[in-house]
Write a structure and sequence with these properties.
The complex is a heterodimer of chains A (about 300) and B (about 280). Chain A has about 300 residues and is an alpha+beta fold. Chain A has two domains: about 100 residues, no CATH class; about 180 residues, Rossmann fold (3-Layer(aba) Sandwich), CATH 3.40.50.300. Helices cover about 25% and strands about 30% of the residues of chain A. Chain A has seven helices and 16 strands. In chain A, strands 1-2-3-7-6-5-4 form a seven-stranded mixed sheet, with helices on one face. A five-stranded mixed β-barrel of chain A has the order 8-9-15-12-11, surrounded by four helices. In chain A, α2 crosses α7 and α4 crosses α6. Chain A is globular. Chain A starts with a strand and ends with a helix. Chain B starts with a strand and ends in a 5-residue tail after the last helix. Chain B has a single domain, classed as P-loop containing nucleotide triphosphate hydrolases (Rossmann fold). With about 280 residues, chain B is an alpha/beta fold. The model of chain B has no long low-confidence stretch (mean pLDDT about 90). Chain B is globular. Classes of the chains: A alpha+beta (about 300), B alpha/beta (about 280). Chains A and B meet through α1 and α5 of A and α2 and α3 of B.
């Protein structure tokens, strides 16, 4: 079977099947992460029960996704068992979503629910839950000249000097058709999942990490007169822990203490977390952020 | 016995008021912040879904997401030591996979709030930004659903409502767990007594003084003045005031005779049962 080689988060990834969302690596090296097609068990020994998955400190079994079962082990091995006739594009949605997050947790990285853009050589993350407007705002910031570093899963790690960095993520924006049309574009190619009008738009990959300077929390349901402000450390820690799926993922993995310590380390390193109350218009919000970034 | 107490109602039937009353009651009759009410996420919130299940509801088809909602509630019930209130506007229906949306094993009971359909119609129209006639059509439509497209624009998953009578029947007759019925009009007329009945249903002992203070803390005027001052984060965008009138019979001015007839023609049986005169 032919092996497909890619790069993600500075790691060399080798896969039994094509993952066109990922960029090709430079040069040759041993694989850091191996993705295989194969059998995946129904149960994990010693795992806490969860409706969607089972997890231990070193293994994550996703059995509740619609198209396939997935087993992620030791931060380096992923086995995928697609259902018969499964659409591989849809299979990759959950591989590059929850499975990537689990892989990050296993490797001691923080998979933040965020987009990130580059501002003056540094990364600024726009974090928020599903539907907060992360991708759409990132797409607009990209057009305003701020290169997009990450969308959906923003992988945060630490460099040799323990400074927080944003690692190269999946170079794509995941955008809803309506948002795409408001940007004056029509989708090229099929959606990520048939029946859901959400599309992966490839963006130029940035293959080196960027120091993480600041995180904005997009608040889609703010109080009408709310203003953006820097969050106190404990509130920031709580928000970041939730936005890197601490409850659903790290608790069954037995890693929530470790994960929380990573979040605190990030804050202790001086990464500021600010609230950003969303308006009703992504364009205006993106323009406001662009003006703020231009001053940096 | 599960730990979820559902705060169920057809939209615009006083659910928010009830949550404010409960919030104050829990706090011993103290003032409540309308922007920090119990059950604030509500049953269909994607935020909670994604956080609990660790998978993005936005990547699921509408039916797939609905099939998983009982799992979210089970996990929420399992995570709390005593009880948790969850606001819900869905009718109590089976998911496409065939199990009840509100799992009985995770549920302690439901507080179902009902309001005169003639009063619901103008309020629903204001809430959705449609005409009162259109709101009446929706209340008569058994296919009516919130966030029906299921994705792309809303922070909530699909909520199937049925028509007004169907909604009430689904909870009052269909729930396999204890149901406590609260009529908005009774809550309006004698709030302390109704709140006392509710406390009894929940198994709480509440002193008359606490009930009175809770009623006063969560009065309509107090909530409306809070909204005027600081806004209400649950108000839909573009709606000027969520706390609109809070009167029992303002429909007599707001709903034409022909629209009343339209509602009555469809809902006469349930209206009679709930003691709503045409």
């Amino acid at each position: 079977m032919r092996t497909h080689a890619y790069t993600l988060a500075g790691l060399r990834v080798e896969s039994d099947f094509a993952i066109p969302e990922l960029p090709r690596p430079r040069g040759k090296a041993a694989a850091d992460v191996r993705i295989r097609l194969g059998r995946v068990p129904n149960r994990l020994r010693g795992a806490l029960a969860h409706p969607m998955f089972e997890a231990t400190p070193t293994a994550y079994l996703l059995r509740g996704a619609p198209m396939a079962r997935y087993l992620v082990r030791d931060g380096r091995e992923v086995t995928v068992a697609p259902a018969r006739g499964a659409d591989m594009r849809a299979v990759r949605v959950f591989l590059l979503g929850p499975c990537l997050r689990a892989l990050c947790h296993q490797r001691g990285l923080v998979p933040l629910r965020a987009s990130a853009v580059e501002v003056a050589g540094e990364a600024i993350a726009l974090a928020g839950p599903s539907m907060a407007g992360k991708s759409t705002i990132a797409a607009r910031l990209g057009r305003a000249g701020f290169p997009v570093l990450a969308d959906d899963v923003c992988i945060v790690g630490f460099d040799a000097a323990d400074r927080p960095i944003v690692l190269p993520s999946v170079p794509r924006l995941r955008v809803w058709r309506d948002a795409l049309r408001r940007l004056g574009e029509e989708p090229k190619g099929p959606p990520d999942r048939s029946g859901i009008p959400r599309y992966s738009i490839a963006i130029p990959p940035v293959l080196a990490p960027r120091p993480l300077a600041r995180i904005y929390l997009l608040d889609r349901q703010p109080l009408p007169k709310a203003r953006g402000q820097r969050l106190p450390t404990l509130l920031a820690a709580r928000a970041l822990a939730i936005l890197s799926s601490v409850r659903a993922l790290t608790e069954p993995m037995g890693r929530d203490t470790h994960h929380f310590s990573l979040v605190l380390k990030l804050l202790a390193a001086g990464v500021e977390v600010h609230s950003f109350p969303r308006g009703t218009d992504c364009g205006k919000d993106a323009a406001k952020l662009a003006r703020m970034f231009a001053r940096r | 016995m599960g730990s979820i107490v559902w705060l169920a109602s057809y939209p615009k039937s006083g659910n928010t008021w009830l949550r404010a009353l409960l919030g104050s009651l829990v706090a011993g009759g103290r003032a409540v912040d309308i922007n920090a009410l119990h059950g604030v996420d509500g049953a269909p919130a994607r935020l909670r879904f994604d956080e609990v299940l660790g998978i993005d509801s936005a990547d699921l088809l509408t039916d797939e997401a609905e099939n998983l909602r009982p799992r979210v509630y089970e996990a929420m019930a399992g995570a709390c030591e005593d009880f948790v209130f969850i606001k819900i506007h869905d009718a109590l229906l089976p998911t496409p996979a065939g199990e009840l949306l509100a799992p009985a094993t995770a549920t302690r009971g439901v507080v179902y709030v009902v309001r005169h359909p003639y009063a619901v119609a103008p309020s629903l129209a204001n809430h959705l930004g449609v005409s009162v006639a259109e709101a009446v059509e929706l209340m008569n439509d058994e296919r009516f659903a919130f966030s029906a497209s299921g994705h792309a624009v809303t922070a909530q998953t699909r909520q199937r409502l049925l028509d007004w009578s169907g909604h009430a029947a689904s909870w009052i007759d269909g729930a396999p767990f204890p149901v406590h019925l609260v009529r908005y009009e009774d809550l309006h007329r004698s709030p302390a007594r109704e709140l006392g009945r509710l406390a009894t249903f929940l198994g709480w002992s509440a002193k008359p003084g606490v009930l009175r203070r809770a009623v006063s803390a969560a009065s309509f005027d107090r909530m409306r003045s809070q909204e005027k001052k600081a806004g209400f984060r649950e108000a839909p965008p573009g709606v000027r005031s969520f706390f609109r009138r809070g009167k029992v019979d303002s429909w007599k001015k707001e709903l034409s005779g022909s629209l009343r007839e339209k509602l009555h023609a469809r809902h006469a049986a349930m209206m009679r049962r709930l003691r709503y005169d045409p």
